[in-house]
Prior knowledge:
Blueprint: H1 21-28, E1 32-36, E2 39-42, H2 44-63, E3 66-68, E4 74-76, H3 77-83, H4 85-88, E5 95-97, E6 103-106, H5 111-121, E7 130-139, E8 154-164, H6 167-187, E9 194-197, E10 208-214, E11 220-225, E12 231-233, E13 252-255, H7 262-269, E14 277-284, E15 291-296, H8 303-310, E16 314-316, E17 341-344, E18 354-357, E19 363-368, H9 370-374, E20 398-413, H10 415-419, E21 424-425, E22 431-432, E23 435-442, H11 443-453, E24 455-456, E25 459-460, E26 471-475, H12 481-495, E27 500-503, H13 509-519, E28 523-527, H14 529-532, E29 536-541, E30 547-551, H15 555-565
Parallel strand pairs: 3-7, 15-17, 26-27, 26-28
Antiparallel strand pairs: 1-2, 4-6, 5-6, 7-8, 8-23, 9-10, 10-20, 11-12, 11-20, 13-19, 14-15, 14-16, 18-19, 20-23, 21-22, 24-25, 28-29, 29-30
The protein binds one RNA strand through residues 9, 11-19, 27-28, 34, 36-37, 89, 91-92, 108-109, 111, 138, 140, 142-144, 146, 151, 157, 159, 200-203, 208, 210, 219-220, 303, 315-316, 318, 405, 408, 410, 438, 440, 442, 458, 474, 476-477, 479, 506-515, 517, 526, 528-531, 538.
Amino acid sequence: MLVSKLLGERYKEKPGEAITPSHIYLLRGGYIRQMSNGIYSMLLPAKKVTRKIEQIIREEMDAIDGQEVLFPVVLPAELWQESGRWDSVANRLIRFKDRIGHDMLLGMTHEEAAVHLARSEVKSYSKYPFMIYQIQTKFRDESRSRGGLIRVREFTMKDAYSFHTSQEDLEQYYERAFQAYHRIFRRVGIPEVVSVASDNGMMGGKVSHEYMLLTDSGEDTIVLCKDCGYKSNMEVAVSKIAHNICEEQAIEEVYTPDIKDIDSLANFFKVSPSRLMKAAVFAVENSKRPLVVFLRGDLQVNEAKLRNAVRANVFPLTDYENVNLCFGFIGAYGLDAEGVDIVYDISLQGEKNLIGGANKLGYHLEGISIDRDIKPDNYADVAKVNEEDTCTKCGGKLTLSRGIEVGNIFQLDTKYTAGMNMTFTDIDGKQKHPVMGCYGIGVGRLLASIIEARHDEYGPIWPMSVAPWQIHICLLNSENEYNRQVGFNLYEKLGKTYDVLMDDRNVAAGTQFADADLLGIPLRIVVSKRNLEKGELELVTRDRKIKKNVKLEDIEKELREMMNEM
RNA sequence: CGGGGCAUAGCGCAGCUUGGUAGCGCGCUUGGUUCGGGACCAAGAGGCCGCAGGUUCAAAUCCUGUUGCCCCGACCA
């Protein structure tokens, strides 16, 4: 490919809408163009990187006995009604009617399609286990796309589905997939991706892991323990609470006019917020009863954990009408529990002498001891982990980090196979539901993540394995006939073995170098008058670690050696 | 869904307060001089000033509405 023919303008200045590095370089380097919110077109450089990423994924999926298939983008509503997700994930599902009036949808994930295919093709245990996967377009009507390709509405995804005759078999396969994923991230050049425990969310099922690239541009919060290696998504992270040591006291009512929030309350009593008991009120999906969560004043409710604890979707309460609670002064002691549901966070367990609301306008209570005064039947862990909390596994200090989720793997149990009545005949002649696993990687997001992890102030630094081209020839002084000849000879010769891009434009050297940096190709050969006078070419790596002159006749040998090391 | 911001040439921006011929830099075209980190000179092309109403002799500018985009939060395989 010649740069003079390559489509995609490269910008000197940062486009106004871009904030994150990958977004900036994808736009500046002429990789992508936006069409609409969360919807992008890709130009050749991005498409080439995509192809290489996909090929690596394909090889690793094949290596764990995957069979590549292709499901339709447009799916009939019946299929999703069968699994129940036509309604349950309605918020991000694009639904429409076809010409005849049938309800249809754009696939946002393909568990249903996979079960639909597999249940009619596989009837005997003897074909088990098996895994099918595809690399294909998904559409999710995200309420908020952001960061260029990091979070989009339409994107390419590799999604894989495995089927097993037993949970044990799934677990064995899950381990293979787990390892395959780490190989994929290593091969595309970001071995630092970590796997973390995660929430199953709308997918259902039991065990799941997310693969995270830790970076400030990420949108997930990850809890890490440097001592024992504990890694978890904030959504399911746990920590050990340091309890206060206090003497019990008699309960006393204190007049606290206009003091409704934790900070001013702690200030008023001159105590740390951990000595307070606060109430957070939620609405629960399909329930008319408000849910009151009591937890220690220094903690926040983790809505994902609360959702799992009450097995229903929860939302912060916004409609205060018809709720019989004394907002600002809600307390666990003396609360009229009629008409409300209550959850006690484990942070309260055993606490003594707390300060909490008196359920009476303008008053708080001092001296509440949980075991003496409240006696909850049970506790739930629904609080957010904080930086510096204690690790439950090893007692070390936890740290928080932002991360981009580049992939995930789930054990789904029989949620879909039972829900959609997929059976096989087992060795004992009985009909059973297979257990299922699913495994996703967002290809475009992975591409963006590689830039997040591998760039400098001039542009992306592509790893050789996914670089749009392997070699970038900067043909300087191309108006000079001899230079031009050397350049084009080199271009043709190397093109037989490598994927080569040559900048044949008659522009200033600086322009060529700046554009080369934006294209981020790992190896660069500079053909210039200066070097050719000595019969040499200059060989530079994009990461600037190597820069040397090579005799014209030695270039192929030199390239072979460098290529082996990259 | 809540909060904030922005829409003027391919990109980055000014002009709007106080209405009066649509501007600058980069990029693009042509010619010339240059030629190792975004060079210089000259001459050009390129605009429904997001869209729709309104006020006015006159609207990029004032008013109303609307749409799109970005950021933060909520949500999220």
